[in-house]
Design brief:
The complex is a heterodimer of chains A (about 290) and B (about 250).
Chain A lengths: L1 H40 L1 H6 L3 E2 L4 E2 L2 H32 L2 H16 L2 H27 L10 H25 L3 H9 L4 H12 L1 H17 L2 H7 L16 H8 L5 H33 L2
Antiparallel strand pairs in A: 1-2
Helix pairs in contact in A: 1-12, 3-6, 3-9, 4-6, 5-6, 5-10, 6-9, 6-10, 7-8, 9-12, 11-12
Chain B lengths: L4 E12 L2 E12 L3 E5 L6 H7 L10 E9 L2 E2 L7 H7 E4 L10 H11 L5 H14 L3 H4 L12 H13 L5 E5 L7 H14 L4 E5 L3 H7 L2 E6 L2 E7 H6 L4 H7 L5
Parallel strand pairs in B: 3-8, 3-9, 6-7, 7-8
Antiparallel strand pairs in B: 1-2, 1-4, 4-5, 9-10
The chains are: A mainly alpha (about 290), B alpha/beta (about 250).
């Protein structure tokens, strides 16, 4: 009996170790491959260099960094208000019958493969932007032009992709606000809307912020959908209608044919991405702790 | 002391779905008096209390008929605005429920949503309300600290102050001391005695001695009905109904 338990224990330990070790191995590997070129080429040069031209040996990742940031920010600008509103609706306003339909539907969004999102964007959003949104913008600015492959398309697709994360976590946070707060507010003569804005959302803010940061992580890391709709031009964007390439997109597109130095440069891009995501996670944990402790 | 009937309840019935929780309730709530509602758990006294400021509206499948008049106006009719009703009939809950905000923000919450913006006016209200709830001296130096950092008894008095800040006429209290220690309980009871000079109070309590100590009138509830309502001293010394006597002397409940 004891031996049997020992074996199970050992097995569980191995499983846990493999999972943990993977993280360290991947980290180690990315840094081992990426750091030398960062040192050789110069971090500042790499991060702020504006030309990414592997054939000529220039590896300035700034356009991709800006690409990732702009697409992610765009996704947050569209997705966060929508996601939080949706969470409020589901948790506070919608009757149960509607929640029963809406909630699984939103959860289903998380299960759609990203290439399908990308394909949808490519087939529907990109032409839509080129043919219907561009003419509207041209009325105000005659010089505006876009192929449709743009930050806007990427941001719209990503906004939908991060919705399930934001909606689910925010909704849980809102639902876990004690009913006593709500009653206290209503009993003072507040309307339902005032109660939501002034009591419920502030009380749920740590969960809501966490949902936003996790959604942001998803947006930064998303590759496939973004490749298909942003046009992949390693150029610092001037407007939301410009094509951009992102950090992840560049790695995925170029790794296949890269020369050894180019490959190292892509790993260095991975290092930047890694640091980016780590910072996000740390700040998420930090805000959670800080707000949770209040 | 006035003999004005602040609230009058006529033939009130309440149903949760098919279950009838309140049966043909009639009651007069006298101005500037404390009315205690006593009775065993599940007898409908909290449900009844919540009909008086329409807090039951939050629950699905609740049906109400009958009349509740506040200063002559039926609070379930179109003549009565829900927001105004809750402004004039405040509520203090069983579990202290200050918002996760500072003490100051808790008190000004009500006045602010009712449109008071000037800082000086709000400051005045905060001091007046906290003094009214007999907690000003304890918290005046830390108004900017979170209300949740206070003790349970202090939190409950903050909730009473928060309620006073919107200047209600009637204050409903749903077992306001059941989560408090004896000393805090005593403070809240003394406070009720003070408050009735300016307000009309209806209090649900499980504690017979408390009903005896704080109230002028007492209603005994059983299975959704009022068995009897009378001056508190009569209920305790000389109840009309056998069931009231049994409950008060502790034979059931």
């Amino acid at each position: 009996m004891k031996k049997y338990e020992k074996i199970i224990e050992a097995f569980l330990l191995i499983c846990a170790t493999v999972a943990t070790l993977s993280v360290f191995l991947i980290t180690f590997f990315i840094f081992k491959e990426g750091l030398p070129i960062l040192k050789e080429y110069g971090i500042i040069h790499f991060v702020f260099g504006k030309t990414w031209s592997p054939t000529n040996g220039s590896y300035g990742a700034f356009p991709m960094i800006m690409g990732s940031i702009s697409v992610t920010l765009g996704a947050l600008i569209i997705g966060v208000p929508m996601g939080i509103s949706c969470a409020v609706f589901l948790a506070e306003i919608a009757p149960k019958s509607i929640v029963k339909i809406f909630k699984p539907a939103i959860e289903l969004l998380a299960g759609i493969p990203s290439v399908v999102y990308g394909f949808f964007g490519l087939a529907i959003l990109v032409p839509l932007i080129r043919m219907h949104i561009l003419p509207i913008i041209q009325k105000f600015n005659g010089e505006a032009y876009t192929s449709g492959y743009s930050i806007l398309a990427g941001a719209m697709i990503l906004a939908v992709m991060i919705l399930p994360t934001i909606v689910n976590i925010s909704e849980n946070a809102i639902r876990s606000v004690p009913i006593e707060y709500k009653q206290g507010s209503l009993a003072l003569g507040a309307t339902q809307f005032e109660t939501i804005i002034k009591v419920i959302l502030p009380a749920a803010k740590s969960g809501i912020i966490t949902s936003v940061v996790l959604g942001m992580g998803r947006a930064v890391g998303e590759t496939m959908a973004v490749i298909l709709v942003t046009g992949n031009m390693p150029k610092v964007p001037g407007s939301v209608l410009d094509s951009v390439s992102t950090l992840t997109g560049t790695i995925a597109m170029e790794m296949g044919y890269a020369t050894p130095t180019h490959q190292k440069a892509l790993f260095a891009t991975g290092v930047i991405l890694f640091v980016f995501i780590m910072l996000l996670n740390v700040s998420a944990t930090w805000t959670m702790k800080r707000l949770g402790g209040e | 002391m006035s003999n004005y009937m602040k609230m009058r309840v006529r033939n009130l019935n309440l149903f949760y779905g098919d279950f009838q929780a309140l049966m043909d309730i009639n009651m007069n709530i006298m101005e500037n008096k404390v009315t205690a509602l006593i009775g065993p758990s599940g007898c409908g006294k909290s449900t009844y209390l919540r009909t008086l400021n329409r807090m039951n509206d939050l629950i699905d499948h609740v049906k109400i008929n009958g009349q509740i008049l506040l200063d002559g106006i039926d609070i379930y009719s179109d003549q009565c605005d829900l927001i105004d009703l809750r402004k004039s009939v405040g509520m203090v809950f069983q579990k202290p429920n200050p918002f996760p905000k500072t003490i100051y923000e808790n008190i000004v919450y009500g006045p602010k949503i009712h449109g008071i913006k000037e800082k000086s006016r709000l400051d005045e209200i905060v001091e007046k309300s906290l003094r009214g709830a007999a907690i000003w001296d304890e918290v005046k130096d830390r108004l900017d600290k979170p209300a949740l950092g206070l003790s349970g008894g202090q939190q409950q008095r903050i909730c009473i102050a928060r309620c006073l800040a919107v200047e209600p006429d009637v204050i409903l209290m749903d077992e306001p001391t059941s989560a408090l220690d004896p000393i805090s309980t005593l403070k809240v009871e003394n406070l009720m005695d003070e408050l009735k000079k300016d307000y009309t109070i209806v209090v649900v309590t499980h504690n017979m001695q408390q009903a005896g100590r704080v109230s002028d009138y007492t209603s005994f509830f059983l299975n959704g009905e009022i068995i009897e309502t009378d001056l508190t001293e009569n209920i305790f010394s000389n109840p009309n109904d056998k069931r009231t006597e049994d409950y008060i002397t502790g034979r059931f409940g």
